[in-house]
TrEMBL record:
PROSITE patterns: RIESKE. Residues 377-390, 397-406 have a biased composition (Low complexity). InterPro entries: Cholesterol_7-desaturase, KshA-like_C, Rieske_2Fe-2S, Rieske_2Fe-2S_sf. Residues 27-129 form the Rieske domain. Its cofactor is Fe cation. Keywords: 2Fe-2S, Iron, Iron-sulfur, Lipid degradation, Lipid metabolism, Metal-binding, Oxidoreductase, Steroid metabolism. This is Rieske-type oxygenase. Residues 377-406 are annotated as: Disordered. Homotrimer. The two-component system 3-ketosteroid-9-alpha-monooxygenase is composed of an oxygenase component KshA and a reductase component KshB. It comes from Planomonospora corallina.
Length: 406
């Protein structure tokens, strides 16, 4: 179907195909594992279903369909009793493997007393669930890699944010190849941009400069921000690990940023972000924690900038691209592998593909815009007039936007 139809020759129509009716095959992160370890059941809306997450007495986190197969009671409103979740309706006890273990008032448990159970993984203080519409177990080659620093005293604990976005989750994945939006939406300044797709991974490599027109000057005695380097990789359809370094005068600040999501239904998803920061002598004993808190707030603002775009844009299956845009169509072919049966994954979806953008023209245009913005700021401060063509504002006071974010 199209959202714009016209009989006039030469006017391009926007094609908006239906969103997928199935949910992506792969590992999906539900957030920090610790929040599910309070002895209570937790409700999670994901994959078009209502799920219950609970911790059994052996410490394992379990994920089941939330509705009891007996009379439809909501297990997420029940009680954890030993290794089982007890339904609040009739006290049927369900184990983490999806089987009913006990019915206190019954002589025996029916043979078919089984509900949907989800394969889980707890790693680096995060909880993952495996989704596969075909019901196959996760193959070893798509395992989520360990995250440097997540379990090290030399790094901070996770700073984690969660929000719900009311659109299809393809929108967030498209940003892997969208260099220009970092300048216009997030007020960063990319100078190098490359993508690599191979197998179940999609990587964005970005280097950028600080934007003096988008942030206040450094305070006296504080090192100035120079720029950043980001290597951000999606491992499967929804979990991105970004090895991110901020470059300051006389110091580098190493971080790991997580950008991940899971679908709630076809038209909404839970968007999560997390960050850890490597401790640094230059930062002092509490400096890394303070920096992690600041960066976490900054990243959340970056997601809010994206959400404002997503709320008002239309889905577009035939984007009209210019030479300086990234490989949107190739990324979408890579992404398609998670929405078809394994037997239908074609070589064009998984073969290695590399693309480095020529940033000559963007950098030239963006330098000019930054200079005009600075001239306008100086003119406003002195009561003068800004030069013709200077941007009229909309510039964020934030720092350099991290690469790999939405």
């Amino acid at each position: 179907m199209t959202t714009i139809e016209t009989g006039q020759d030469g006017i391009r129509a926007i094609e908006t195909g239906a969103v997928p009716t199935r949910f992506a095959r792969g590992w999906h992160c539900l957030g920090l594992a610790g929040k599910f370890k309070d002895g209570r059941p937790h409700t999670v809306h994901a994959f078009g279903s209502k799920l219950v997450v609970f911790q059994s007495s052996d410490g394992r986190l379990n994920v089941l369909d939330a509705y009891c197969r007996h009379m439809g009671g909501d297990l997420s409103q029940g009680t954890v009793k030993g290794d089982e979740i007890a339904c609040p309706f009739h006290d049927w006890r369900w184990g983490g493997d999806g089987r009913c273990k006990k019915i206190p008032y019954a002589r025996r448990v029916p043979l078919r007393a089984r509900t949907a159970a989800w394969t889980t993984l707890e790693q680096d203080h995060l909880l993952f669930v495996w989704n596969d519409p075909e019901g196959n177990p996760p193959p070893a080659e798509v395992a989520i890699p360990r995250i440097e620093g997540a379990t090290s005293d030399g790094w901070t604990d996770w700073r984690w944010n969660e929000t719900v976005v009311h659109t299809n989750c393809r929108e967030v994945v498209d940003n892997v190849v969208d260099m220009a939006h970092f300048f216009y939406v997030h007020y960063s300044f990319p100078t190098y941009f490359k993508n690599i797709f191979e197998g179940h991974t999609a990587t964005q490599i970005m280097k950028g400069l600080s934007r003096p027109d988008a942030r206040p000057p450094s305070r006296k005695g504080q090192p100035g921000m120079l720029g950043n380097t980001s290597v951000a990789t999606y491992h499967g359809p929804s979990f991105m690990i970004d090895d991110l370094t901020y470059h300051y005068e006389g110091m580098d600040l190493n971080c790991v940023l997580i950008n991940c999501h899971y679908p709630i239904d076809a038209n909404s998803f839970a968007l999560h972000s997390g960050i850890i920061v490597e401790r640094n002598e230059r930062l002092g004993p509490d400096g890394a924690e303070e920096m992690a808190a600041r960066l976490s707030d900054f990243i959340l603002k970056g997601f809010e900038q994206d959400v404002r775009i997503w709320k008002n844009k239309t889905r577009i299956d035939n984007p009209l691209l210019c030479e300086e845009d990234g490989p949107v169509y190739q990324l979408r072919r890579w992404y398609e592998q998670f929405y078809v049966d394994v037997a239908d994954v074609g070589p064009e979806m998984v073969e290695r593909f590399e693309f480095e953008l020529d940033t000559t023209r963007p950098v030239e245009a963006w330098r000019k815009e930054v200079e005009e913005n600075l001239a306008r700021r100086a003119a406003a401060a002195s009561g003068g007039t800004a030069p013709d063509g200077a941007s009229t504002g909309g510039v964020s006071p934030g720092a350099v936007s991290p690469g790999g974010t939405a």
